[in-house]
Design a protein that fits this description.
about 210 residues; alpha/beta; Rossmann fold; Arc Repressor Mutant, subunit A; 2 domains; 10 helices; about 10% strand
């Protein structure tokens, strides 16, 4: 479902998603209707603006966070006009950081990347806009300081929701090299050896929170 108070933006998102074979079960223009429609439709993904009626403040985000509290794991992709770090951190702190995304609205123009991000969030992934990541990384934690430049680059790519194969293509290295880097990242961040998918999410959260 799509929650966006701009009719032009809302219709554009619906058209885009449907072009790629997704069904939009509901579209709303305010936070109150977001909550009602999400309860009624139980969507596989909620795409919402941050600032929406009735207060035109952070109503959309608060409705999305309430949804994730009431129905843990509900996938939410937030769109924002600006990088707002406090909103990004509130998303990361909800539902252990899984199935959430935060993208700037101008990324919607990169059609394939946007749809890919939406699909990753719907599947339980964590996708954050590169500009959001950069602003969250003004200060680095002591554990992250252990990483080499290449390992930091790999983790940066992971934080954007890219798969190992996609990272390998982006950095022009082998899949085996990426697997080795990721293993080193897990070790240096002192993450548990159980559950690679959980460790991947935990590594990204450590990266974004620091």
């Amino acid at each position: 479902m799509v929650a966006e108070d701009s009719a032009l933006m809302r219709d554009g998102l619906i058209t885009l998603l449907e072009r790629f074979g997704h069904d939009v079960c509901a579209s709303v223009d305010n936070a109150g209707d977001l909550a009602k429609a999400a309860k009624r439709e139980e969507p596989q993904l909620v795409i919402t603006d941050v600032r929406m009626p009735p207060d035109h403040n952070d109503d959309g985000l608060r409705a999305a966070l309430d949804l994730r509290q009431q129905t843990p794991g509900s996938p939410v992709l937030v769109l924002s006009q600006y990088v707002e770090k406090s909103y990004a951190m509130r998303l990361l702190d909800s539902g252990d950081g899984r199935a959430v995304g935060y993208l700037l609205k101008d990324r919607v123009g990169a059609v394939t990347d946007f749809v890919d991000a939406a699909e990753q969030v719907a599947s339980g992934g964590t996708v954050f806009d590169p500009d959001v990541i950069r602003q969250l990384l003004v200060q680095r934690g002591s554990l992250l300081a252990r990483l080499t430049a290449r390992e930091s680059e790999v983790l940066y790519q992971m934080a954007q929701g890219r798969s190992n194969a996609a990272i390998a293509r982006e950095l022009v290295v082998t899949d085996a090299a990426i697997n080795k880097h990721i293993g080193n990242i897990f070790a240096k961040l002192e993450l548990s050896t159980t559950g690679d998918e959980h460790r991947r999410v935990a590594a990204v959260l450590e990266y974004l929170r620091s």
